[in-house]
Amino acid sequence: MLKWLYRIIGAVILFTLLVIGVFFAVRNPQLISLDFVIWQSPEFSIALHVILAFAVGVMLALVASSAIMIRAERSVRVLKKRLAKNQAELDSIRQNSIAKELDASQE
């Protein structure tokens, strides 16, 4: 029911971030070169460096969170198997109990 509201809010936030990014890029046209210890980047605008750093951060966060999600999904699969096994055992115990009660009542 509120799915459309979440989509609208997400679209507004995305649009706001896009406008801020464009404004930042227009206001900072200077070219810079990043100098790492063993490598020097080509000259790009400040905005492009910031956007690339943000994109790399997002990718790293996705990789880290996907590893956690894979581990959680594996745990859920193991627990579902254990639940199915325990459920089958419980059903078997109930069937045996009912059979014993029927045998006792017939005697």
Compose a concise summary of this entry.
This protein has helices at 3-27, 46-106, and strands at residues 31-32, 44-45. The chain has 107 residues and is mainly α. Helix 1 (3-27) runs antiparallel to helix 2 (46-106).
Give an account of the 3D structure.
The protein has 107 residues and is mainly α. It has one domain. The chain has helices spanning 3-27, 46-106; strands spanning 31-32, 44-45. The protein has a two-stranded antiparallel ribbon. The radius of gyration is 30 Å and the shape is elongated. The model has no long low-confidence stretch (mean pLDDT 87).
Structure characteristics:
107 residues, mainly alpha, two-stranded antiparallel ribbon, 2 helices
